Amino acid sequence: MMKTMNTRLISTLSAFALCAGAMHANAQVQIAPIFKDNMVLQQQTDAPIWGRALPGHTISVTVSWQENAIETKVSKDSTWRLVIPTPVASYDPQQITVSADGRSRTFSNVLIGEVWLCSGQSNMEMPMKGYSSQPILGGQDAIVHSKNDFLRCFTVGKAMTLQEQESCTGRWESASPNTTAEFTATGYYFARLLQEVLDVPVGIIHSSAGGSAIEAWIPREAFTREFPKIAIPNDISREKKKVLVPTVLYNAMIHPIAGYAIRGAIWYQGEANVGRYQEYPRMFAAMHDTWTKRWGGKRFPIYLCQIAPFRFSDQAGNAFLREAQMKIAQTQPDTGIAILMDTGEQNCIHPANKQVAGERLAYIALARNYGFPNLPYRAPEFRRAEYADGKATLIFDHTGSGFTSFGQPLTGFELAGADRVFHPATAAIVNGKIVVESSQVPDPVAVRYAFKGYIRGSLYGSNGLPVSSFRSDNWDDVR
Fold first, then answer.
1. Over the chain, what is the mean pLDDT?
2. In the chain, what are the domain boundaries?
């Protein structure tokens, strides 16, 4: 029967045809592909479920946690959508049955808990098994001990298109030594800590693509409005790096799942935008705003990993992109940032320590979304510098109980005078502030910390979280 279906029906998932045997096309009901056995639904919300069917037909959904069915009529454009009120999180498996025209499809082993979207480029895509010759630190041990039916992952199959798609590939899998090797490492460590602290099921939806630019994750309507001077090609078949083409990853890897109830998203991307750091905050805002609209209008947080230090060909480009990401976290609502100044590797763009990345993102979620406001989740953030007697005294926000370098010398500081030439400087922690000086700069007017492509951060908050690279100047021509 599948060979005789019209092209449109073939292009989207047909749960009924797959599971209820052969049917005529006029009885066809399609359900969005993210709805499958073993899924995790966001707790205590109105969770949408949607699909396609013949106009005017009645779709009925029954769930095991309530008696009454939920019904809706298929619209004239053949789409249907309804919402399922979800209960408080539970480890008890549930069922969801979708019925139409006397036929039904039941999804089993459904859990109610917390759901997060994980997206970005290769550092989010990097699996627990690592890449070739690039292992995950502690990955093998974590995989072996990962058996946990209450931590589940749906990985969206990689695809790129110029048109918004309704279908994608993927399935929900529970963490186990047989499956966890393929899970996103950053997402896994994020989910594992949430599940441990919250003691509820946690599901992650993983949709990322190595080498991708943020432009590729922005819907067309927002991209053409906000960035009209950047052309979107009519054909990507000849594009050498398709993952850089605007909109193509949103179309194929986000649009099919947009609307599935989530608590928020985590984002690890930026390396592909190092050369275009000036536009990064605007692009992130456009992505965040339009994702929110596509999810129904209720704004959700996106917490991002600041890219780690790495030896790019442009030695300062990385630092400018890190600065742009800090600007996002400091100025855009419903954002937060995990600083990775202590995990970068000089000659590998994929840091091995993904546990730090995932867990620092989890700190933000726990503090901001789950009622742990006293949990330290942000390092001190540079505010301004004051200059006197040949020294720069640095003032920070969110200093908490102060600074530390864990007994090591503070390194990575530089001072410049009016000539805009930076020289290495010494730094010390004095009364909760950082004091910087250099014999080569008797009258400093600007200070920088760790503002390089690759550098190892040395300054931490007393909560153990690293301070981001920063600068007091705005001299973009200085490298």
1. 93
2. 2-110, 112-369, 381-471
Instruction: With beta carbons less than 8 A apart as the criterion, state whether 160 and 252 touch.
Output: yes
Whether the predicted pLDDT of 10 surpasses 70: no
DSSP state of 252: I
Per DSSP (E only), the strands in 412-451 are: 413-416, 422-424, 426-430, 433-437, 446-449
Cβ–Cβ under 8 Å, residues 215 and 276: no
User: 0.70 cut: is pTM over it?
Assistant: yes
Q: How far apart are CA 410 and CA 408, in angstroms?
A: 6
Residue tagged 């249907």 (tokens): 80
Is domain 2-110 classified as CATH 1.10.1740?
A: no
The answer to whether the Cα torsion of 48, 49, 53, 59 is positive or negative is negative
Q: Do domains 2-110 and 112-369 have the same CATH topology?
A: no
Non-local (6+) Cβ contacts of 437 within 8 A are 390, 391, 392, 415, 425, 426, 444
Retrieve residue 476's tokens. Answer: 């973009």
At 302-340, the pLDDT tens digits run 999 999 999 987 667 899 999 999 999 999 999 999 999
Structure tokens at 54: 């013949």
Tell whether domain 112-369 is in CATH 3.40.50.1110. Answer: yes
Q: What are phi and psi of 220, to 5 degrees?
A: -55, -45
**What are 319's two structure tokens?**
């630092």
pLDDT tens, 92-122? 999 999 999 889 999 999 999 999 999 999 9
For residue 409, how many other CB atoms are within 10 A of its CB? 9
In order of 130, 296, 304, 325, the CA distances from 271 in angstroms are 18, 30, 13, 11
What's the pLDDT at 102? 86
Is residue 106 classed exposed, middle or buried when 0-12, 13-18 and 19+ CB atoms within 10 A define those classes? middle
